[in-house]
Write a structure and sequence with these properties.
With 355 residues, the protein is mainly α. It has three domains: 74 residues, Endolytic murein transglycosylase (Dna Ligase, domain 1); 77 residues, no CATH class; 135 residues, no CATH class. The protein has 13 helices and six strands. It has a two-stranded antiparallel ribbon with strand order 1-2. A two-stranded antiparallel ribbon has the order 3-4. The radius of gyration is 31 Å and the shape is elongated.
């Protein structure tokens, strides 16, 4: 009897040693995963993940990974998402990656100067996102975000945002909105004195115009300064981008004299003051330029044709600059209107989101 008991104990010890050696090998040997991706779906357990890894030939059996999760007290820490594991990773390293939630991240780029519609198109073209606003007009999008009554244009900060498979476009919209609000509030608190803006929203409107008027960061303070001088003097802004925005889909790439006479709320050739909303998503530098404009007496500017602008203090100086840079030295009658600056469209034509 005693001999049988000793043999049984020895057998259990031997089995334990064998199991320990196997588990140590199973947890630490290098796995062959290739370049495949693995999706941990909501509700999936370690048993389910181990079964998938076994079925795809990564693991010899599924129990060792489950035991590892329980023994390390991570059996409740499985993070959902899409994973790509480094080839040659161990089971321990794989568990650490999933517990930490180091999932594959995809970028979506929101470009400075884009309209809200272009922003939404970029989200729609991100296939790994969950789309919760498909087909909704801008007004309904803002309502679903809890921002009912706010015009969407200019409210979202242009930046590169990262998301994992299955995350919602709502997350990116909320992050972009919060980032713009925080930046605008911070810059508004540190603004120069005596600016002709009643609130930060008016500064945001002006920043969107500056963003569309020039792609050169070094010129933005001067552009802002010229526009602010116009506001202070009661002059119309006469901004081509605002007029184009008001035209929406009717703009075909050419701005004509008849377009400058169109009756829209965004036609700053026919209306005084600022347009009713931003016309695009301004970047940080445009917001900063508007709240810290260049000290200048200029009220006119015209494109030189090389991406830069010629700034003028008087109409006669400006008309000479127009003749030089826009009319190739041939004078014309300026009585009908003054050409200020040509407009170069962004990657796709802007449109005015209707509320």
């Amino acid at each position: 009897m005693r001999t049988a008991l000793v043999r049984l104990v020895i057998a259990f010890i031997a089995l334990g040693l064998i199991a320990g050696v196997y588990l140590s090998w199973a947890w630490n040997h290098r796995l062959e995963l290739g370049s495949d991706t693995y999706l941990v779906k909501p509700g999936m357990t370690w048993h389910g993940l181990a079964r998938e890894l076994r079925n795809r030939g990564v693991l010899l059996e599924r129990h060792s990974l489950v035991w590892l999760a329980y023994l390390s007290r991570h059996h409740r820490d499985l993070k959902t998402g899409e994973y790509r594991f480094r080839n040659g990773i161990t089971a321990k390293e794989l568990l650490d990656q999933v517990v930490a939630g180091r999932v594959i991240e995809y970028p979506v780029v929101l470009v400075e100067g884009w309209t809200f519609n272009q922003f939404m198109q970029a989200l729609e073209q991100s296939p790994k996102l969950t789309h919760s606003f498909t087909g909704l007009p801008p007004k309904a999008v803002m309502e679903k975000l809890g921002l009912a009554g706010e015009h969407p244009e200019g409210r979202f900060f242009p930046d590169t945002y990262y998301y994992s498979a299955g995350q919602s476009d709502r997350m990116i919209l909320a992050n972009a909105y919060d980032k713009m609000q925080k930046l605008l509030d911070q810059e508004w608190q540190n603004r120069d004195a005596d600016l002709p803006f009643k609130n930060s929203y008016e500064a945001l409107i002006m920043a969107s115009i500056v963003e569309k008027e020039t792609g050169r960061a070094d010129e933005r303070p001067m552009i802002a300064g010229a526009f602010i001088n116009r506001l202070r003097r009661g002059m119309r802004l006469q901004s081509d981008p605002t007029t184009i925005y008001g035209m929406g889909a009717a703009f075909d790439g050419n701005l004509r004299l008849k377009d400058l006479r169109r009756a829209t709320p965004y036609n700053t050739y026919t209306r005084s003051g600022l347009p009713p909303s931003p016309i695009a998503m301004p970047g940080k530098e445009s917001i900063r330029a508007v709240l810290h404009p260049a000290k200048t007496r200029a009220v006119f500017f015209v494109a030189r044709g090389d991406g830069s602008h010629e700034f003028s203090e008087t109409l006669s100086e400006h008309n000479r600059a127009v003749i030089k840079y826009q009319l190739k030295g041939k004078a014309r009658d300026f009585s009908s209107h003054t050409v200020k600056t040509p407009y170069a469209p962004r990657p796709s034509s802007p449109s005015n989101p209707s509320q």
